[in-house]
Amino acid sequence: GIQVEQSPPDLILQEGANSTLRCNFSDSVNNLQWFHQNPWGQLINLFYIPSGTKQNGRLSATTVATERYSLLYISSSQTTDSGVYFCAVGYNQGGKLIFGQGTELSVKP
Amino acid sequence: NAGVTQTPKFQVLKTGQSMTLQCAQDMNHNSMYWYRQDPGMGLRLIYYSASEGTTDKGEVPNGYNVSRLNKREFSLRLESAAPSQTSVYFCASSDPGQGISPLHFGNGTRLTVT
User: What Å distances lie between residue A30 and B44, B49, B101, CA to CA?
Assistant: First the structure.
């Protein structure tokens, strides 16, 4: 099956710093989503991005499907950005996804 | 608009007991999913329902059964709970027929089996 690897596994930032999270996957996919799990355990969908680039406020994501990776950029980080960021991929447009292990982000004030 | 609602939020079972986790969505989505999350691991798919009346196994279906009661509701049943089923369970929904279809999660059920 598809392997999904995220890096780095942990990241500590000072408030205001920028960061890049990476997701590598082992097979061609046509569904890729990024999620944020906040410290209370809620999972929020950030992006549905099987290819190309999208931006939403301070967050943006780029997926290069031909090279099998995706990047999540967080600019001017805030303490509320803390939590775990998951990348998940799939073969179809539904929610049958394979999740990576996540990147745990801690933003210090 | 509540999105995806799961009940209960917390549950403690003894080994061998049974229980049903409930999930309902109000977004008129066709597809619904059950995932589990264990410490240090990402989420893993247990079962899914692509549309009302259909269910299929995911990555880790052993020990579970599901029922797609109607378009809104998708329940997960543990017939004889085991300590290995201690986990956080998430229900989710999406609507792949609409093309771009992000996955929406409920707030989870934290289950402990002693």
Answer: 19, 20, 12
Chain A CB within 8 Å of residue B61 CB = no
| Residues of chain B positioned with their CB less than 8 A from the CB of A33 | 102-103
Helices and strands in chain A, H and E counts = 0, 11
The CA–CA distances, whole Å, from B84 to A70, B44, B63, B114 equal 33, 14, 10, 10
Residue B34, beta-bridge partner list = B47, B91
What is the average per-residue pLDDT within A3-11? 97
Interface contact flag, A33 B103, Cβ < 8 Å: yes
Decide if B78 contacts B64 (C-beta within 8 A): yes
B72 touches chain A (CB under 8 A): no
Instruction: Note the pLDDT tens digit of each residue in B56-90.
Output: 999 999 999 999 989 999 999 999 999 999 999 99
